[in-house]
Every structure is written in C-alpha cells, then in structure tokens.
C-alpha cells in the first residue's frame, strides 16, 4: 500500500509517499480502507518536530470503510463507514486503529467532514465539557478561525453563550459571524486582552478557550473574571511559557489541559460527544468548512496549503 513518511522532521518537502506493507490488526483493532484524511494541526507539529519510528506513518484523522475487525471487537463490522483517530497512520491507503477510536459515520455525511470531526469539533466539545460552559456566559476563543476554533464558535453559540473570537485577519473573523461569532478581536498591534476589556468594560470573561498558547494564554487569562476558567488546547506559540501563579491564586483562576485522544479509551462520555457531533453534522446543525482537497500523492502541496495563513476551513486529502 501507499503511505506517507519522512526521514527527518522538517517542512512539507520532507514527506514522501512510499510503498509499505499493509498493517496487521490486533484483537482490539479494526482495519479500514482510507477514503478521506483531515490535515490537523497536530500533523504539522509532528512533521516539524518529531521523528517517526520504523513502521509509523504520519496523520491523526481519517475516515473510510472497515475491511476487517479483530477478534475482540464488538459493535463494528466490515463494510461499515467510520471516522478514525490515532496518533499515527492516517496518511495511508489502509490503517489499523483501536475500535474505541472509531466513530460510525451517518448515512450521507461527506467522508471529509466525518474525518475532521473527532479532532476539531470533538476537542471543542470536550473543552466545553471540562470548562462547564453555561447559557448566558461569555466565552473568549483564541484562534477562532482554526479547526477547533470554528467548531468552538458554533457550539458555544448553540449553548446560548456570548462568543468572542480572536484572529489575525478581520476578513476571516467576519466569516465566522455566520457560525455564531458575536464579537471579533483582531490581534497584532494591540493585545487581545486590552480590546476585550474595552468591549466588556472590565474582566468579565467566564471561560477562555486557548488554541494558541504562549503570550496569548497569559493575556487571555488576565481578562477572566475572578473564579473564571481557562482551557488550554494549543501550544503553537510555544511549549514552555511562564504564567503568573500569584495572579492565578489571587483571582482564583482554574487552568485545565484539554487533550481528547486519551479520553476515548477511558470515558464513554468522550466517545458519545463525538457520535453526537457526527449526527449534528449529518443534520446540518454543525458545519465543517472545506478549504481545499488534494489527492494523497499531493501531500506536500496539501501541507503547504494547510500552513497558509488567512484561510478558513479544513484542508483534506482523498484516496
């Protein structure tokens, strides 16, 4: 089969499409024929910074058709359409994944959209579960035009929250108004925090969803109300960043790390959230904007597009 690998971490040009052996499933796994791949931020981070082990191939999220199931698998069968997640292996014609990381695709749902739901919308939904967002509260989403951010805007709006989003381009944020964004904050010359305080008349944000990290996190924390909560999702702006712990203490701020992948193997509620999102997408209640689609053999061009700033929507590959 064909799969994407690389010899050393680096830019898109390091990736190669090679011939490899088809995976052999374990008793708790399923084998799928990949039809659509969602390029996730984690894929880009991995490609830039992490080496692959022998037999590993790039990619988090893919949807396709089950070809075979392991002896311990229940509730899934060959011929069934599923979206899948794993830390490796999406960029291939076949992939083996644990059954608990498979989510049935409702009839008629675009496989590209299905492939994108576990990571982006799934993470957004889990962040709100952790942060206990309530109707009438105010949520600030840092990086609102990203894959998690677009879903976070829609879900918060459906919950009846006031939704404030940040981004580097006004035109991208304006497009988010159709998904429920109430207030757009363009960052750059002026910090987001100062603009949010001016908008709200002080520190009145109930919940911060941070998909960026770095200085943006510290800035965002300081617009939370006393007793507010920050959910950390992204580290694109830096893995190591100092936070004023005295400020957290004095203002009773809660910080929560949100990493959904490990939760599926432990918590049924995490799997239920993704299944609910799948049905919402099939019913037209959740939108996953599509920016562009490339064939797998154009993986370099696909990653170049995925790293282009200012776009709104996911970049996909299909087989």
Automatic annotation (TrEMBL):
Alphabetically ordered keywords of this record: NADP, Oxidoreductase
Pfam families assigned to the protein according to its UniProt record, in alphabetical order: ADH_N, ADH_zinc_N
Entries under InterPro entries matching the protein: ADH-like_C, ADH-like_N, ER, GroES-like_sf, NAD(P)-bd_dom_sf, Quin_OxRdtase/zeta-crystal_CS
All copies of domain Enoyl reductase (ER), residue ranges: 10-317
The protein's name in its UniProt record: Zinc-binding alcohol dehydrogenase family protein
